[in-house]
Amino acid sequence: MLKSTFHLLAPAAFAALLAGASVASAEELEIPVGEQGKETYIENIRGLKKDEVTARLGEPLGIQGPIGDPAITRWEYQDFYVYFEWDTVLHTVRKPQG
């Protein structure tokens, strides 16, 4: 009898737990404009070739790589990095601010 009661109560307890979890609320965080980080615009250059990136952004400040297979190279610009796989842009990543 105890075993069958447990099987009946377990789903009810689980449902009550889920109902309680859905009541949680998110806290709104406001950051004054003067305290926000500097916004850096990065052109959408994904898929471009190295010579096209140089034509749009100029010469990089530094180049690291290629490393690995596939060959990954990182070009450094003032506010961001450009990552290439072989000769094609994979991603652009903002440098950490601060």
From TrEMBL:
<keyword id="KW-0732">Signal</keyword>
<feature type="signal peptide">
    <location>
        <begin position="1"/>
        <end position="26"/>
    </location>
</feature>
<protein>
    <recommendedName>
        <fullName>Lipoprotein SmpA/OmlA domain-containing protein</fullName>
    </recommendedName>
</protein>
